[in-house]
Design goal:
The complex is a heterodimer of chains A (about 110) and B (about 120).
Chain A (H helix, E strand, L loop, with lengths): L3 E4 L2 E4 L4 E8 L5 E7 L6 E7 L2 E5 L6 E7 L2 E7 L7 E8 L9 E2 L3 E5 L1
Parallel strand pairs in A: 2-11
Antiparallel strand pairs in A: 1-3, 3-8, 4-5, 4-9, 5-6, 7-8, 9-10, 9-11
Chain B lengths: L2 E3 L4 E5 L4 E3 L2 E3 L5 E7 L5 E7 L5 E3 L5 E5 L4 E6 L8 E9 L8 E4 L3 E6 L1
Parallel strand pairs in B: 2-12
Antiparallel strand pairs in B: 1-4, 3-9, 5-6, 5-10, 7-8, 8-9, 10-11, 10-12
Classes of the chains: A mainly beta (about 110), B mainly beta (about 120).
């Protein structure tokens, strides 16, 4: 399989559930990203990993917990979410290099919090 | 700080007509600029990117964009719209927060393109 894959594609969870989103990139990249896409708002960068080390955390609530076990895999662990967390969660990857590296996106996970 | 403004959250064109989607950016350094397209229930797909090599950039599916430094603009155009062009389009500017990060992208709010038969 090529590019960036995400599972599951759709997820419905209650506010007390714990679930995880998975992202895998097959591009040999060294940086991976989690974005949140809500209606009528710009994409919000949540986390950045470079060479498996988290280098950016844009004040995301602690109910979102990322994990990057290696340069090809990225997880987003979810617990005690709120209805306003319902959104499309996108994963992306890029080469670790200078400015201008293209980010390649996965298809996203559509999350609904009841 | 970098930012992107996309004028017009919705644009409608007739099939065969010119497509023009507007993007203005703010950047304290020479920018790297991108246009992405998002079809329903899919992720973002790169259309084209500007990296200072040429001001007119050609992308996939017949799209192109022109970088105009004096206007801080990077508008996306296509001479003749096709029904399959109906999608959400995002403009983005690239920055790099530090030497240890992958580069940071700042996205606009998107423009939804409708193509009328």
């Amino acid at each position: 399989e090529t590019g960036v894959t995400q599972t599951p594609r759709h997820l419905v969870m209650g506010m007390t559930n714990k679930k995880s989103l998975k992202c895998e990139q097959h591009l040999g990249h060294n940086a991976m990203y989690w974005y949140k896409q809500s209606a009528k708002k710009p994409l919000e960068l949540m986390f950045v990993y470079s060479l498996e080390e988290r280098v950016e955390n844009n004040s995301v609530p602690s109910r979102f917990s990322p994990e990057c076990p290696n340069s090809s895999h990225l997880f987003l662990h979810l617990h005690t979410l709120q209805p306003e967390d319902s959104a499309l969660y996108l994963c992306a990857s890029s080469r670790r290099g200078g400015r201008g590296d293209t980010q390649y996106f996965g298809p996203g996970t559509r999350l609904t919090v009841l | 700080a970098q930012s992107v403004t996309q004028l017009g959250s919705h644009v409608s064109v007739s099939e065969g007509a010119l497509v023009l989607l507007r993007c203005n950016y703010s950047s304290s350094v020479p920018p790297y600029l991108f246009w992405y397209v998002q079809y329903p229930n899919q992720g973002l797909q790169l259309l084209l990117k500007y990296t200072s090599a040429a001001t007119l950039v050609k992308g996939i599916n017949g799209f192109e964009a022109e970088f105009k430094k004096s206007e801080t603009s990077f508008h996306l155009t296509k001479p003749s719209a096709h029904m399959s062009d109906a999608a959400e389009y995002f403009c983005a500017v690239s920055d790099q927060a530090s030497s240890n990060t992958g580069n940071q992208f700042y996205f606009g709010t998107g423009t939804s393109l409708t193509v009328i038969p």
